[in-house]
Specification:
13 helices; 46% helix; aminotransferase; eight-stranded mixed beta sheet; binds 4'-deoxy-4'-aminopyridoxal-5'-phosphate; alpha/beta; single chain; four-stranded antiparallel beta sheet; GntR family transcriptional regulator; 378 residues; pyridoxal phosphate binding
Length: 378
């Protein structure tokens, strides 16, 4: 399906690929050449399993934007935040352990949980993110069975796939519930700096140093460099570094040093602003196309940042079964079922507006509208 959906005539609203067209490639190639020339002996060598110290300091500066006050010694650089997810799950979960996650949740995290045979219990969301009452209910129901979840995995800001953001009041409530019941929190925040209003939400980690925070340069710089990180409490750090070492020996020195130079020598914040402006235009194109072309009884969120619109289709439509017909009509999306561990999501789908141009997005949504009309006519 991926191969078919990648054909040029298909408008893919399926993937979450960042749009890197605006990156300053000339300046970056000069940086790459200079890195090899001046620091090649270090950049092309093995390095520390925890990551390049200068970069870990800069990562703390980046996190400061979200109100986080961190020590570079508690940052572990990983091969994308995906690797951090894998390592954290490996450290905490034995087969059969329960983890809490929003419903829907990030497909890559669900993949890591499944790989270590953890059982996911989903907690519902609304337009303001995770619903604290539902979290409390889930925790109490599990407690009645003698189960304490290993952690809550949450994407509080510009959620993937739901597109929503947890309000400040709820941030406090969620932390309070988890503290009361002794449940760890993993905050996954690759989109936090990609808000359309320019507002930056304080991270959960900014309120509670016990939170494990996962970050990434994939969306703010270059996903292909595979540089992400975990900020962990000191008690977890050594285990995480050991796990990272056994997985990869060390993250790529060259890529880390390139990211470090980029942060040091380029106006990366205005680059993020440029990215975000492009994403806002694309979001607008998608929202107006949805209004124009989708049948009645479809519902979707209005994302205030990030990459995604989460769409609920009319009763009777199965988004997984519909996908081959959509691809035949030259539009692709991600069916909602991939974002649940428990088989839900067949009336939902995720649309990504990050990669195609506004014109292609409009055309893709027009095609999707036609496919939905045809499903409803059957
Ligand atoms: N978490 C979330 C919520 C994501 O959307 C993604 C990428 N799609 C990742 C983690 C992984 O990002 P990376 O490994 O590129 O840092």
């Amino acid at each position: 399906m991926f191969a078919v959906a990648s054909r040029p005539e298909v408008v893919s609203l399926a993937g979450g690929m960042p749009n890197l067209a605006a990156l300053p490639l000339e300046a970056l190639s000069a940086e790459v050449a200079d890195l090899v020339r001046r620091e090649g002996q270090v950049a092309l060598q093995y390095g520390s399993a925890q990551g390049v110290p200068a970069l870990r300091e800069q990562i703390c500066e980046v996190m400061r934007l979200e109100g986080i006050n961190a020590d570079p010694g508690d940052v572990v650089v990983t091969v994308g935040s995906q690797m951090a997810l894998d390592l954290v799950t490996r450290i905490f979960c034995d087969p059969g352990d329960v983890v809490l996650a929003e419903g829907p949740s990030y497909v890559g995290a669900l993949g890591s949980f499944a790989a270590y045979q953890a059982r996911v219990v989903h907690v519902g969301m609304d337009e303001h993110g995770l619903v604290p009452e539902l979290l409390r209910d889930a925790v109490r129901t599990l407690a009645a069975q003698g189960i304490t979840p290993k952690f809550l995995y949450t994407i509080p800001t510009f959620h993937n796939p739901a597109g929503v953001t947890l309000t400040l009041e709820r941030r406090a409530e969620v932390l309070e519930i988890c503290a009361r019941y002794g449940i760890g929190v993993i905050e996954d925040n690759p989109y936090g700096l990609l808000g359309f209003s320019g507002r930056i939400y304080p991270a959960l980690r900014s309120f509670d140093p016990g939170v494990i925070y996962l970050g990434s340069f994939s969306k703010t710089f270059a996903s292909g460099l595979r540089v992400g990180w975990a900020l962990v409490p000191p008690a977890v750090r050594d285990r995480l570094v050991l796990a990272a070492e056994s997985a990869t020996l060390c993250p790529p020195s060259f890529n880390q040093m390139l990211v470090s130079r980029y942060l040091e020598g380029h106006d990366w914040r205005s680059q993020v602003k440029t990215f975000t402006e492009a994403y806002r235009d694309r979001r607008d194109a998608m929202l107006s196309a949805l209004e124009t072309y989708l049948p009645d009884d479809c519902r979707w969120n209005v994302p205030d940042g990030g990459f995604y619109v989460w769409l609920t289709v009319p009763e009777g439509v199965d988004t997984k079964a519909m996908l081959p017909r959509a691809v035949t009509a030259r539009v692709a999306y991600a069916s909602g079922t991939g974002f649940y561990a428990d088989g839900l999501g067949s009336r939902q789908l995720r649309l990504s507006y990050c990669y195609p141009t506004p014109e292609r997005i409009t055309e893709g949504v027009r095609r999707l509208g036609g496919v939905l009309e045809a499903e409803l006519d059957v």
